[in-house]
Amino acid sequence: MLKLLVPFLLLIAAIGATVLTDRPQPPADFTFINRGDVTTLDLQKMSWMQDLRVARGLFEGLVKHDIFTSDYAIRPAVAESWEVSPDGLSYTFHLRSNAKWSNGEPVRAQDFVYSWRRALLPDTASDYTALFQKIKGATAFFDWRQKQLAAFAPAPGDEGRPLEATAAGALWRETLAKFDELVRLRATDDHTLQFELELPFAPFLDLCAFAVFYPVYPPLVGPYEQPDRSTGQLDIQFGWTKPPLIVGNGPFVLTTWRFRRDMRLEKNPLYWNAPAINIDSVAIPSIEDTNAAVLAFRSGAIDWLSDVSATYRADILDDKRQFYRENRAQLDDLRTQGFDQVEIDRRLPPDPRNHIHAFPAFGTYFYNFNCQPRLQDGRDNPFADARVRRAFAMAMDKDRIVNEVRRVGERVATTLIPPGSLVGYRSPAGASYDPAAARALLAEAGYPGGKGFITVELLFNKDGGHDVVAQAVAKDWERNLGVNVELATREIAVFKEDLKNQNFMIGRAGWFGDYGDPTTFLDLSRKDDGNNDRKYSSAAYEDLMNRSDREPDAAKRLEILSQAESLLVDTDLPLIPIYHYVQMYMFDPHKVTGISSHPRQEQNVWEVDILGDGKGAERPREMKVNGDTP
Known about the structure:
Blueprint lengths: L1 H20 L8 E4 L15 H10 L4 E3 L8 E3 L2 E6 L5 E6 L13 H12 L8 H4 L5 H14 L15 H16 L2 E5 L2 E5 L7 H4 L10 H4 L3 E3 L6 E3 L15 E7 L3 E6 L13 E5 L4 H9 L5 E2 L7 H14 L1 H9 L4 H7 L8 E14 L16 H9 L3 H9 L4 E2 L22 H10 L11 E6 L4 H16 L3 E6 L1 H9 L5 E7 L6 H4 L16 H12 L3 H19 L2 E13 L4 E2 L15 E2 L20
Parallel strand pairs: 1-12, 1-13, 16-17, 16-18
Antiparallel strand pairs: 2-3, 4-5, 5-7, 6-7, 8-9, 10-11, 11-12, 13-19, 14-18, 14-19, 15-19, 20-21
Helix pairs in contact: 1-9, 5-6, 13-15, 14-16, 19-20
């Protein structure tokens, strides 16, 4: 009984602390718990889902996705129209004249040039620099800047001079000139943006809807990025991301951000499409305890829980399955009519059991191998051998993990890209569960029955259920391969640092696709990619990826990418796909609309409407699908 009360007491304590220490704010129209605390609102530094979700409420890019269409159709945003040349290399965007920053200044094409240049600077250390390097001359600029920084030395007496008179100031001026010289990205006037790609890349328009491609406000950000006199590198500060300083161009403005406590967004009256926004305010409280988060929803304190991670979530899902069984006839009829899962739930009778939702997601949970020849402590790394990696992959019983450990409807993964998620893409087979073949491979690599193999350390972070998956995997490997496995748990910050520094043997990982193309997953294993924590390097893989870059025929390009994925999941196994995610939400479909069931799971707070509150369209958003809902 006490165990059940703990989350409730934590919730009461958190609410009590807020009431005692702060003036209460008026209730927001819409309240939700984000997937985790926002780590940054610097657009070009983002990669975490919770950051991107808030960013899409505060900023806006050239275009946006229609998340209620099966193909995630591209719609106008800051750009009201655009043209792409027949060869797929040249893009021209025409910005609407009524797009404004939240301080009233117009959004200019130069703002996009400034922001994309930030992403291309090695100083910024963006996780997505490679995406911007598809622009002609961008890689040459990045390499030039990196070389200049490596060779930089301050001039004697620089400490006593104004910054603009120092060697660092001179290098920065030279950098701006070099960017204009090399990179084919131009603002031809305040409302026209033009750029040219190195090679055709069909999904580039899709990339323009990705939040890291959104603009920041240059007059605000510039003073927070000044060259360091001793290194020449930009010293990037983040004070501009906090209210009341932050300036955005999106549907909302940020009025409150108290780390690990809460955020609050208010409707931006200067947003060009403000009349289409159905809510005036959004509250995002921080509740770390996963059980307390479920209680907060059930108590009515929040409208949407964006990630249900409570230890008993499988039981909550079982309750919904029982609700479906009780309404089988109506459920089957709605599925036959082609409604998506959210609309089906809305048309079924109101019932608290119908407030949990599990949607297939455009993401995969996997384990990374450290592929380097030596481990951090200097020992030879047996996982540098692809035969060993394949053996460990084939000795993992993923069916048991999905059906007995997780129990929330995830699909077993043998591929990195979720099958069927990309139209026209053929998924390879991947390595299946075969303990006998796994033992033979390990023996072939020199470790018969696991003899002579080092103790395997399996790294994962606390919380999120990673521990129970790791325990199941460890048992499989010990039973099927005869090796010893130690579980290594780390706090999230230490865990991330260990991965980036290759201070691990095998580590848990996960990835959600950022755009609708196989490269959103496959680029992770390119040798120079910032997300290649495995340090996997394969000439054959690089050749296939380079060939796909140069292939103009869309179908042939997808086939080349399928061969590249096959190299990852059938042959080299630098990672082990374990399961394809489902995204679990809690919301009342009779009250909240604007949340999409699409696998890409790009939810936007500006799409939300609270039904029955007397504001907004008061009309459910609906996405029709063919056949059964996922």
